[in-house]
Write a structure and sequence with these properties.
heterodimer; A: 63 residues; mainly alpha; 3 helices; elongated; B: 926 residues; five-stranded mixed sheet; two-stranded antiparallel sheet
Chain lengths: 63, 926
């Protein structure tokens, strides 16, 4: 269920999510013109991370 | 709006529905057809994280603090991503150790310490009660909004508590929890009915929230485009969506993320659903993405609702936008649905939290006190079991009433979010002991306990007490100026730290001191043997086969005493279950260690690890093995292990030696074969001149009619062949010396330019060959190398001789060049002969190899050498640290042999003789 490869990917995904959802990347999203982009950015990243997690945990279990 | 009674009937009807669902799930569990054995139900039960705080408070926070509310859900998303690593480990430990709550978990990790368990239970009780109060308040407020009494304080002041609906909600919930959460004593058994009801409530609150969101976006506005174009048109609204609206800005963002991450894992109710109620650890993989998806879905509509509320209802309380917006639009049925959703969110949290807290209170606070009473300990079978159950039920009612009193007293001094975050920060104090204890073996009881204690004190000073001050209970001057005007003690700017929001500030200091004490004290104090065993079991939980019963040898006890203990505390059925695997013939027989362990585990499932330990110790007679015996056993085990390791190492070494021997043997065989070949070749080569010498000598002896001229010619042949023979023998000897390493060189500094000129002059065939054109290109004035002059001269002459032999017969031309190269000097000899094919270039250095082909592939008429010159030359050059090889002829187009020699070191060092790097020796060493 928890191969070393999957464990690595899992830690990688968590690190990626943390990076995308904390400053300074969040600060960059906040600078985009129009003002309503920060929440949109957060939701898009959030959805992306969930999608990747689903792919990671549901796909290729036989690996 | 409408009849207040209708609403009451709906609300209590909904609670009745929960009873039915829970009873149904319990019956199914009893029949062995569990409804909660599904990863989806597991994920939905984790969604108990979303309380009334989410349901009403998120909109309020989004309206006031922009996207900051999302952090409360992004933290758990990150935690859930890690759950297949972290939570799975906790689930596995909890299963093996029969853990009943987070207090039990931390107590068990640190040597089944009852003190630590009590501390965790007390912190949880203090920290979480306001959170329960918050749920009651949300129910009351939403009810008040719905029935048209938005001024809630007035309702509270005018009536008595029995006219307050939330009091009755609390009582109904107490009944529910007692029925489905504390029906039997074994708290580590799962509460299937409760989990099913909570999962159902998670669905209801999500559906209600999404429905009201869609209603607002598509009915009150013309879709999200319309809503957001209006938002963009209003700069004050846009500003609320940026980072500037988040308290504390970027640092507040990070602080809140960390807070939510830790609280998600340490809140008692989350620990309950994540770990204690987990049916199957494989469910975690599904929940790891499904629960974040739930969070995303329930937050999707928060910003649209907040923005809509700010535009349409700018005067109202943002916390109740979810209700006031549909009410304002006249959608009464929808607002009732919202009320039910809010009720789901609130009751779900209260049910799970109360079960978790009551287990802690009865097992970690009440039980250790009861066990001190001799009367209770000696009471007959079943008495204590009844007492315990009564305590657990009383504590359920007590906790809910405590929450109610807090709600009634503090009233509306806080917004919903504030109360929730204060509780989060309290729960986060468990994180160091819990998470670090899971991975760091040396973390010990003293460090964990003092860290937690200091952390919660800092929390109280920086968050709780200022909160009391703000609600008017205390004079709030100390918040602004510090106690006794000591500025650096100001609760919200401790040690002059300012610029953070109050939660990040509190978290930084409390967690900082918590961690510092945990690490510092653990590193400098010693843990007890039991604690070390538990630490090893916890940290190594994921290692395969590690989690067997921890068979620390205990003292002796008759099996009957254990049976009596189990019957007294858990009843006869439980005692029989334990003894099924360990049948005892006679009650006086000594119980095996496994049985003692099993008994302790069974007791731990009901009473917590610390109390179970005390009880079992009370019947285990005789000396438990002392530390020396234990260490002695450990020592002998380690000795055996070490011996094993040495044996393994030896056999490995033997294997290596065997392999070496095999390869040496192969090399010897190869050498033997080469030697045979060599001998065959040498004898063949020697026979050729010998045969002709003998033939001509016989002719000279036997025939007397030869002319003088012929005789002279024959003698000439004999002499030439003899010379060839002796040269051949000389070469064979050289080669033999070279190969056996006995060729002694006499290395000294010499000038290659002089040597080259000398060799050219000394080569007789140069002058004998007619028409030979020799070109000397010496590009350096001096080329100092280390070498044996005689041997080097031999090499140069050999190269020149070869060039002469293989140059064009009609118009022989050769060129010798000497030049400075990157590392030393290059001396090359090229000719205008047929050249050497690319595949022959290495083979010319093999012994007795003759070039039999010309460039056009025809067989060369005569092999013109012994075939040993080049191998010998190469050997000599190699011994001097240089290289000899065939290259493309740069100008003449024939063969070109190039010798490279390293330069001699500078004079002053070589003059001393000692320390002179000897290229010959170096080459030999290689």
């Amino acid at each position: 269920m928890m191969t070393p490869r999957r464990r690595e990917r899992l830690l990688g995904l968590t690190a990626l999510a943390t990076l995308l959802l904390t400053p300074p990347l969040v600060l960059m999203a906040n600078r985009i013109q129009g003002g309503i982009w920060l929440p949109i950015y957060v939701f898009v990243v959030w959805g992306l991370v969930i999608g990747l997690a689903a792919w990671l945990f549901e796909g290729h279990t036989e690996e | 709006m409408g009849s207040e009674w209708v609403l009451l009937v709906i609300a209590f009807g909904y609670l009745g529905l929960l009873f039915i669902i829970a009873a149904w799930a319990d019956r199914r569990a009893f029949q062995g057809r569990s409804v909660i054995a599904s990863p989806t139900v597991y994920a939905l039960s984790i969604a108990v994280y979303c309380t009334a705080w989410t349901f009403y408070g998120s909109v309020g926070r989004a309206a006031e603090a922009g996207p900051g509310f999302l952090l409360i859900y992004l933290g758990p998303t990150l935690a859930m991503l890690l759950s297949p690593i972290v939570v799975r480990k906790m689930v596995r430990i909890a299963r093996a150790q029969r853990i009943t709550s987070i207090a039990d978990f931390i107590s068990a990790r640190y040597g089944k310490s009852s003190g630590l368990g009590a501390l965790v239970a007390a912190i949880a009780l203090i920290g979480i009660t306001p959170y329960i109060a918050l749920q009651l308040r949300a129910i009351t407020e939403s009810h008040a909004v719905l029935t048209g009494h938005p001024d809630y304080a007035m309702v509270m002041d005018a009536g008595y508590f029995w006219s307050d609906k939330s009091f009755w909600v609390a009582l109904v919930l107490a009944a529910f929890i007692i029925l489905f959460g504390a029906r039997h004593l074994d708290a580590s058994e799962r509460h299937e009915g409760m989990v099913a009801a909570v999962a159902f409530e998670s669905l209801i609150k999500l559906a209600a929230f999404l429905t009201v969101g869609l209603f607002i976006v598509f009915v009150l506005f013309e879709g999200p485009g319309d809503l957001f174009s209006r938002v963009v048109a209003s700069p004050s609204l846009v500003e609320r969506l940026g980072l500037s609206a988040v308290p504390g800005g970027a640092s507040g963002w990070v602080g809140m993320l960390v807070l939510a991450f830790l609280a998600f894992l340490t809140l008692p109710r989350q620990f309950q659903v994540l770990v204690v109620e987990s049916v199957d650890e494989r469910h975690i993989f599904r929940a790891a993405w499904m629960f974040p998806l739930y969070l995303l879905a329930i937050n999707l509509m928060v910003i649209p609702i907040a923005m809509a509320g700010l535009q349409l209802n700018s005067g109202g309380d943002p916390d109740s936008f979810v209700l006031t917006l549909p009410l304002g639009a006249g959608a009464e049925a929808l607002s009732v649905l919202v009320f039910i959703g809010g009720l789901s969110a609130a009751t779900g949290m209260m049910i799970v939290e109360t079960i978790a807290l009551s287990t802690m209170v009865s097992n970690q606070l009440a039980m250790p006190l009861l066990l001190r009473s001799r009367w209770l300990r000696d009471a007959g079978s079943g008495v204590l079991a009844r007492w315990l159950l009564a305590i657990r039920r009383l504590s359920i009612v007590g906790i809910l009433m405590l929450g109610y009193s807090y709600h009634a007293l503090i009233g509306d001094a806080y917004s919903l979010v504030t109360i929730g975050l204060v509780s989060f920060a309290a729960a986060a104090q468990f994180a160091p002991a819990l998470l670090i204890g899971l991975y760091w073996r040396s973390a010990n009881r003293l460090g964990a306990g003092l860290g937690m204690l200091a952390g919660i004190l800092v929390w109280a000073w920086t968050l709780l007490i200022p909160g009391f001050a703000r609600s008017g209970w205390l004079d709030d001057s100390f918040v602004h100026f510090g106690p006794w005007a000591i500025e650096w003690l100001k609760p919200q700017a401790l040690f002059w730290l300012e610029g953070l929001d109050i939660y990040s500030h509190s978290l930084l200091w409390s967690l900082g001191i918590n961690l510092a004490l945990l690490f510092g004290i653990s590193m400098f104090t010693q843990a007890s043997p039991l604690e070390r065993t538990q630490a090893a079991l916890f940290t190594g939980a994921m290692a395969p086969h590690q989690f067997g019963p921890s068979a620390l040898p205990r003292g002796k006890t008759p099996g009957g005493a254990l049976r009596a203990l189990l019957e007294r505390y858990l009843g006869g059925a439980a005692a029989r279950r334990v003894f099924v695997d360990h049948p005892l013939r006679n009650d006086d027989d000594a119980a095996p260690p496994e049985l003692i362990e099993r008994t302790e585990q069974a007791l731990a499932g009901a009473l917590g690890n610390a109390s179970a330990r005390v009880l079992v110790d009370s019947v285990v007679h005789g000396e438990p093995p002392d530390l020396d015996t234990l260490l002695g056993m450990l020592d002998s085990t380690q000795r055996i292990l070490a011996m094993n390791r040495r044996l393994e190492q030896k056999s490995h070494e033997l294997e290596e030696i065997g392999a070496e021997l095999r390869s040496a043997n192969e090399r010897l065989r190869e050498l033997d074969r080469l030697k045979d070949e060599f001998v065959a070749m040498v004898s063949h080569e020697l026979r050729t001149p010998l045969t002709s010498i003998r033939a001509f000598a016989e002719i000279l002896r036997d025939s007397s009619v030869l002319t003088e001229e012929k005789r002279a010619h024959f003698l000439e042949v004999v002499v030439r062949e003899s010379e060839r023979l002796s040269r051949l023998i000389e070469e064979v000897l050289d080669l033999a010396r070279l190969e056996s390493g006995r060729l002694t060189l006499n290395p000294q500094r010499l000038d290659l330019v002089t040597l080259t000129r000398h060799s050219v002059d000394a080569l007789p065939s140069l002058h004998k060959t007619p028409d030979l054109e020799l070109q000397l290109d010496i590009g350096v004035t001096e080329a100092m190398v280390i070498g044996d002059p005689d041997r080097l001269e031999q090499v140069i002459i050999n190269l020149l001789g070869n060039a002469i032999k293989f140059s064009d017969d009609a118009q022989p031309r050769i060129r010798l060049f000497l030049e400075q190269a990157k590392r030393g000097y290059r001396l090359g000899v090229e000719d205008n002969g047929a050249g050497i094919n690319a595949d022959e270039r290495e083979r010319v250095f093999e012994k007795f190899h003759q070039i039999h082909y010309q460039g056009d592939g025809t067989v060369h008429p005569r092999p013109r050498g012994s075939g040993l010159g080049l191998p010998i030359s190469r050997g000599i050059v190699a011994q001097l640290g240089g290289r000899l090889r065939v290259e493309d002829a740069p100008t003449l187009g024939g063969a070109c042999l190039v010798m490279e020699l390293p330069p001699a070191p500078p004079e002053e060092s070589s003059g001393l003789g000692e320390g002179l790097p000897d290229p010959a020796a170096e080459a030999k060493a290689k």
